[in-house]
């Protein structure tokens, strides 16, 4: 699922959305802080606060709705 999600996230980044990626193997404390148990886990931040979370592959149209 991560490999299928990556091109969609890259496309959204090209459209002006700010996208960050974290390797949970390299940052287990950060993953733990946000209770990441499965990947991909997408977390939407607004004003520095996590406001929405989605687990698993998300198609682009659904992801755009998730962002708005």
Average pLDDT value?
Answer: 95
Instruction: Find the structural class using helix and strand composition.
Output: alpha+beta
Give the % helix: 25-40%
The low-confidence runs, each spanning 5 or more residues with pLDDT under 50, are none
> Could you say which overall geometry the principal axes of the C-alpha atoms support?
globular
Calculate the terminal CA-CA distance, rounded to whole Å.
22 Å
Q: In what order do the strands lie side by side in the largest sheet?
A: 1-2
Instruction: Kindly provide the radius of gyration, computed on alpha-carbon positions and rounded to a whole number of angstroms.
Output: 12 Å
What is the beta-strand fraction?
A: 15-25%
Number of strands: 2
Q: Report the biggest beta sheet as strand number plus sense, adding barrel if it closes.
A: 2 strands, antiparallel
């Amino acid at each position: 699922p991560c490999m299928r999600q990556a091109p969609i996230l890259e496309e959204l980044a090209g459209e002006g959305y700010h996208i960050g990626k974290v390797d949970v193997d390299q940052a287990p404390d950060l993953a733990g802080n946000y209770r990441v148990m499965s990947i991909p886990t997408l977390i939407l931040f607004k004003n520095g606060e996590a406001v929405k979370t989605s687990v698993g592959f998300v198609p682009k149209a659904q992801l755009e709705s998730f962002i708005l």
